[in-house]
Specification:
The protein is α+β, with helices and mostly antiparallel strands. The N and C termini lie far apart (about 75 Å).
């Protein structure tokens, strides 16, 4: 019995996925995928499962997500699920890359840090008066 553990990140959200042979049950934070709302985030998480097709119907996935906002959590879960499916069936690697590279490669962008004396902004310049 082959169990695959992977992780995916986006900003400060971290998703850990466990894949095991089964009947196609997907749980996100102990909640069935079909019960996740809003629908747009559920659809984002389902993308790798739809591309994988029959492979996804033969495995159970359990994903635990911590940190970040709802969109970052959805993208982190999507990455973790795709990595787990590729670990289970290597043929999916090319399909995922052809569809969307962010399914297998994490987006490393972060929010720019605030700068001192800039009124809480990251890039706004300090106003100067020469008179």
């Amino acid at each position: 019995m082959k169990i695959i553990n992977t992780s995916g990140t986006r900003k400060s959200a971290i998703a850990r996925a466990s894949l095991s042979p089964g009947s196609g049950v997907v749980r996100i934070n102990s909640q069935l995928l079909q019960t996740i709302s809003p629908v747009i985030y559920r659809t984002k998480i389902e993308e790798p499962l739809l591309i994988a097709g029959d492979v996804a119907k033969n495995v159970n996935l359990n994903v635990i997500i911590n940190g970040g906002g709802i969109n970052s959590q959805a993208e982190a879960a999507r990455l973790a699920i795709a990595k787990a499916l590729v670990g289970y069936d290597k043929k999916l690697h090319k399909q995922f890359l052809d569809y969307d590279r962010t399914l297998l490669v994490a987006d490393v962008r972060r929010k720019e840090t605030h700068k001192p004396n800039r009124h809480g902004k990251a890039r706004a310049k300090v106003q100067k008066s020469y008179r």
